[in-house]
What we know:
nine-stranded mixed β-sheet; two-stranded parallel ribbon; TIM Barrel
Amino acid sequence: MIPAQSLVLNALLRAVHFSGLRKVVGRSRWRSDRILILAYHGFSKRDEHLWSDLYVEPSWFCRRIEFLRKEGYVPLSLDQLVDYLRGAEIPERSVVVTIDDGFHDFLKFAFPILSSSAIPATLYVTTYYVCHHLPVFDPALSYLMWKGGGKRFSLPWEKQGLLAPARGDHVARSRLHAGLRATWQALGISTEEKHATLLNVGKAFGVDMDEFLAERMFGLLSPEEVENCAVGGIDVQLHTHRHRVPFDDQLFANEISDNRRRLQGIMRTQRPLKHFCYPSGEYHESSPSVLRTLEVETATTCEFGYVTRSSNPLLLPRLLDSMTISEARFSAWLAGLMGVRYRRG
Ligand SMILES: [Zn+2]
């Protein structure tokens, strides 16, 4: 059941959206001195958006980008955001577009949309699976568990057989997935073994894994494709090598150095790699100081909010946009009406 408070808020947001008020608020002094960073992850090749709200349909993304253009929002680069934090003026209604991870579906769907709209965008690329041409095990397993909802399966390192929760039970699936992840990480299961297991799980659920691989479901960009994105104007930046933020500062620093070294090796266009996104929005108290020693200038989180002149450049909030966010709510975020900062999830 939707709480009464949410119903009232939704009605209010719709009223603002369909009146001219959003344009007035969007030009207010309050909003004009703030930047909203938008965050996206994956773009569905099949039905991934039904599995996770981190995936969106390409046609939906196209409508979002068209909305930005039509409403006169001004997309800035992260370098311009750094200038703003140092005191530079910005245009009214500034936004920054970011995309996490570097999945192949970005190149297939989002890149052409962003290019044709001349929208500057930052793509945070995690490199381990760029170097290993395999589906990223973690989300691919979760997706297959969703496909096989209600069916039994097994993992060779788990002693007992497993039951994939019903498709609609997102909570049970994430709980099971988190438990399984803790085990395969603790056991140090190799990439090859995880891949072989993924194929078996898919087959057990009746998924055609040859097609799955051919379509590059949950595959990251190849090194050449990362380079093509950079040549095409995308600002490719840091996201750790193995998509993790270890507690140990030295290990965290190594993750970023490994990621940076690999991206530098891939890209002929040697733009400075100085922008970072915390994988899964995770960070520790000492994370910003580690980033500072590595000369990273900005770091984005998964906390919702606007960037202001007093924001910590190494803990920048964003709006994780998704298909669960209505156009009225999205428009309210853009206009500056959603001033409350909160953490996703
Ligand atoms: Zn990520």
